[in-house]
Here is the input.
Amino acid sequence: MASISKTIKKNKQSVAPLLEGSGMIEYAPAPESKSSAKINAKYDLFINGKFEKPLSKKYFDTINPATEEKISTVAEANAADVDRAVKAARNAYNKVWSKMPAKERAKYIYRIARMIQERARELAIIETMDGGKPIRESRDIDVPIAANHFFYYAGWADKLQYAYPNKKIESLGVAGQIIPWNFPLLMAAWKIAPALATGNTVVLKPAETTPLTALKLAEIIQESDLPPGVVNIITGAGATGAAIVNHPDINKIAFTGSTDVGKIIQRAVAGTNKKITLELGGKAANIIFDDAPLDQAVEGVINGIFFNQGHVCCAGSRLFVQESVYKIVLQKLKDRLATLIVGDPLDKNTDIGAINSKQQMDNIHKYLKIGEKEGAEMYQTQCILPKKGFFMPPTLFTNVAQSSRIAQEEIFGPVLTIQTFRTDDEVIEKANNTPYGLSAGVWTDKGSKIFNLTTKMRAGVVWANTYNKFDPTSPFGGYKESGFGREGGLHGLSAYLNV
Ligand code: ADP
Here is the structure.
């Protein structure tokens, strides 16, 4: 069992060549070319259909977490900039968007979807450079699903009355939308597409560490000829987000991010007329029963927590294995972990890319220390990590107590805690014993067990014999401290309507 300090030291020295002596194939590098990604040296704020210099006169750098190199400089919006964006959104709402026939609105949303598809490669490369996730993920998951969200909600725009038969429905007005760094383009699509389909206008702020694909989306929106002011995209950090939340002329706040900030936002809008949806943290349980197809289950667990560096609020970060198959599952997990490639996110062979930021990397290391201090056993693969950038090997913790902080708190990194169980009731109780309730996974051969668990688990999404599958038609959202409101599907429409 490697101690943390030893592991960190080894990582720095890049010892133990990957897969050495294991008989596994080493792949030649297959990096995606950056040449098709056009990134400006500097980005202003996208307000009223134009890129405008910030009144704050301030800019900040966005870096590539895999190389620690600066990629671009982006504007930092202050309260006056937020006010400009909200005024543009209000004006566009009153004069154009709320009056436009729904089928015309749909055409713009379709056009944006098509343009995302046309520029998919560029968007995927920029997503990977700015956020650190493997190109395979951004190319095959983030970008296509983002386009699909626009397609899906374009379809609803002129059919809203069918969604709410015999009800009077109306749009809300201006939506303020604040998104995190784990799925920058996809979260922007999740927020913007339903807002536009229901006739609202938007002020959106991406996270400070991953602003670039949202700004590329602003370029697409500009080229799509969407009327100026219908979508405004402004960059900045927490203070910019707070200025959006506190702006008096915003009708709806949609937030995805940490539970701590979610609580601040909920307090800030209490007593106002603002409608709110919050999609917050998670500590999902992935449950393997002894009758499950074990290889498939292990692959699903790996997909659920290690691909994408565990930077997913619905990451299956707690594994519960039925006692009779614990040893074999643990061995299969370790064998599979040994084959995972950690490194250059732009390389198509890479399974685990860069941790999004130094701050996040430090936070994960803090939890590794807590885990060891709490008496859990840590296991890490001995892989070579790049010398620069924020990387860490996939990590397992066994001998984890139910009350342990690593089993209770969201780590948001490639760290999996493993516990055992004997009966259905025991695992349901253990899985539900967390302040969160966003998602869960069940692996079993028996349909009856799946139904028993899906009805008793306090989680917004329960995947059965699969994990981390997303579709624009399925609603997504949490219970308890994971937030409220649903995004996606028919449910996602009502978040932007008075019904
Ligand atoms: P994460 O831990 O995923 O980074 P955060 O909740 O810190 O989550 O950030 C999510 C988004 O919320 C980011 O766009 C961030 O800039 C924004 N944000 C941070 N603090 C505040 C705040 N007090 N009010 C509004 N938005 C905020």
Notes: Residues 1-19 have pLDDT under 50 and may be disordered. DSSP finds 17 helices and 20 strands in the chain.
